[in-house]
């Protein structure tokens, strides 16, 4: 059930995208080639699921549209969901997006018959992030969609940055419209909307000519989690805020997201 084999230029690593058990597939590849690949597992089920047509538990990097109801659409998403969050270790049924996507009470829908509402918007307090809460029996996952606009591949978030990322480090922005965009940090003193943010050169991207698009706001920014032996685990780096649609993007680092919201990224469990 191998879907694609490619070269991850940022990590200088062979990537195998497949449906199945990642550990067994990686072991087989090592036996055959002597090279340790990175394996990403496509989400499977009775119907193919993707960032644009998902069912619970809902992943980060998901396409959402403004309003409380709607029907399946091929149109560009309004914004993108980010990371599952918990506050006080008791309530973890939130997910982030960009603060400029809406104010408290604004609602969004997703094909699949569910909706969510902005419960806390922190943009007015100086951080471009908002917390979304579900309407009805909806719950989120620590997994993040990781691929093109219509991807069905997702990876678990099992770690997080605790400070500003290093200049020159590689990362991935997974937006609902632009898909997976690769980039390298060029500055931690960038500015977007008057807020200090991380600046990323996305000219090395492989989706939409390396540019983030409108509707990618709130997208999870991640890197490979090198603290685990798993081949496909991600670490949370930040929340995408804006881009120039050519070769530069900006995001709020995850430690600033946590400080603003009083919540932390969920890195364990489902």
From TrEMBL:
InterPro entries: Peptidase_S1_PA (IPR009003), Peptidase_S1_PA_chymotrypsin (IPR043504). SUPFAM superfamilies: Trypsin-like serine proteases. This is Peptidase S1 domain-containing protein.
